[in-house]
């Protein structure tokens, strides 16, 4: 079975931001491992990961949201666009057929995607997907969740942390390129 990895991240991250560069590096790393990349299909982190993957010869699928038809256009690095009429459907389409998810720091939308998958994993409905959080801010969030919320060690163990794009791709794809 071919590896397919969804990448969650902000649509507002500008070119030149360290997370934009990290996302582009991640796209390249995933493509070098032969993984199909799925993303939200727009700009920011989504555009950067798509750009990196396409530049390295990978295939990229964008799962867009009908809500944005009048205000956003899909990024130009997509091989396929899968539209969705609502947020729940979009997240389901993002996850469809994937082996893993990697999240970069983002906003409320990114958090909702992460928590959606984490909840599925917690209840045994995540189809053995890996959930990898890429970047330093996630460590801080996990510390707060562990200290102040009902996120105990077994729940925390469902998530991997990665500091680099290469490490995140290794975790998601089962090893180096």
TrEMBL record:
PANTHER family: CYTOKININ RIBOSIDE 5'-MONOPHOSPHATE PHOSPHORIBOHYDROLASE, LYSINE DECARBOXYLASE-LIKE PROTEIN
Protein name: LOG family protein
Signal sequence bounds: none
Matches recorded under Pfam families: Lysine_decarbox (PF03641)
SUPFAM superfamilies the record matches: MCP/YpsA-like (SSF102405)
Any single Gene Ontology cellular-component annotation: cytosol
UniProt feature coiled coil, ranges: none
InterPro entries registered for this protein in UniProt: LOG_fam, LOG_family_nucleotidases
